[in-house]
Amino acid sequence: MGAQIGRFVARRLGALVVTLLAASLIIYGALHLSPGDPAALLAGGRNPSPETLAAIRAEYHLDDPFWARYWHWLSGVFQWDLGKSMSFGDQVSNLISARLTNTLFLVGYAALLIIFFGLATGIAGALAGKAVNTVITTTTSLLMAVPTFVAAIVLIWLFATKLNWLPVFGSGTGFGDRIEHLTLPALALTASYIAYVSRVIRSALSSELHGEHVETARSRGVRMPSIVRRHVLRNAAAPVLTVSGLTVAGLIAGTVVVEQAFGVSGIGSLLVLAAQKQDFVVVQDIALLMVAAFVVVNTVVDLVSAVLDRRLLRTGV
Q: Cβ distance 148 to 188 under 8 Å?
């Protein structure tokens, strides 16, 4: 079993490295395959002088062969040396570091909401009566059809404009102030995700409840709460963890829309601002960071799922 676990971990880590290298190559290559002079693009779309273009080419090694330029950039990423932004006039690492806390706080807050409400409604839908299940199914179906930006508009109108309960702009400063400022962004970000997780959990639990092992336990007189705790929840843990982990990973990309809508100073809004300014140095670094976060979360979910369900070790899924 130890060798089997080792091979599974090695395969997943190998896939992680290959995926990250491929993503970095695509992201970096997109800039240099786009029409126009890369030096002019790095200058932010302005009308740079020949001296400025020469300085940019020297700074970013644009006169070197492509693979040499790529390796220079990638080795800088490993050292957290992401280059200098032309439009912001600062190191990209400083720009990201100043905003990363807000994004991580928002993603963490949203993840907690998804896990809590997704589990609660999913379990309620599977274990409660037909009427409750119908209400939950209808609600989750509606939420899944609502785009994030529409949810943001509705939440702003209801809780900020009409009821004046929560602030609508900014990130807050202290812990309590951040909770207050990021509640609406987190709700807008998680509405459809909560519905999706709830439906998957309800389906997984319903499938387990109709399994032969549950019927056998009930015929032996085992009480239903004990069956749910010992058999149903345990057997459904792996798919529940998988869908929850993938959903949390998807939050990283969703922050781009939400941060822009609510004026949250995070890396998602920085990505939009950099794209508007044609600051491709910032864009490619943030894009790589988001892809890396998504892939790492997926890998961790795969490893934990394999611990919960050892059948995955044999199949290699």
A: yes
